[in-house]
Automatic annotation (TrEMBL):
The keyword Metal-binding does not apply. This is Ribosome-recycling factor, mitochondrial. GO terms for molecular function: ribosomal large subunit binding. Gene3D superfamilies: 3.30.1360.40, Ribosome-recycling factor. InterPro entries: Ribosome_recyc_fac (IPR002661), Ribosome_recyc_fac_dom (IPR023584), RRF_sf (IPR036191).
Amino acid sequence: GDEVITLIRSTSACKLIVAEQDFFFNTSICCADTHQASSILHSAVAASEDNVFVQGALKEMKEVEVVLGEELAKHFSLQVDLRIYEDLMVKLEKGDEHRLGHLGRVSLKSPTMVMINFADNPSAIKWAKLAIQKSYLNVTPQHEGVVLYVPVPRMTRERREQLARDAKGQILNEYKQALNEIYTRFEKKSAQSTTKADEERHTRQLLLDLKHAMEEKGANLIETKRKELLTEMS
């Protein structure tokens, strides 16, 4: 479908609204970055009408942006969100990976303690405990029988600062990695399918510019959420 990009300017901030059918993204970012990112996205949208590679990459990168928003919502939640524990990836002895929620039953024992029951997969306890210890949660689970007890991190000033650092580091890096994988895949498809060197170079540049623009949007979204969290402490 056709895409509409509307840039709303104000003295202090700009909001870029990208709409594609029923697919909406609202991201508030500073004016200088918005002008550049919106210009690049506008070019990508225009190019995608005649370029299937840019069109495909744009669609997938927007989907990754939605996932980023969901991950940030979980990451910065001040409530106990069991999905944070359920979605942790656990690498088992043979190297296969599974979501923690598939290996054990995750429940809230108390407002300060999460309980994970491994009655159906007792052999996974050791590896689940290791995954939790290595995660950004920064907690030490206690092992009793077929159950792991995981203390809920207290939302202290130090904890909020840690969440802010993790968002700017780990979450942003994972987002950029996902964008880069999309860029690489569609750039490779273009190189294999395009016979004209000029067209291939043009597509590669469009894909690269698109990746950088989406990285900028993600970084600014994370920065906005990070500042909101730290502001609550003051």
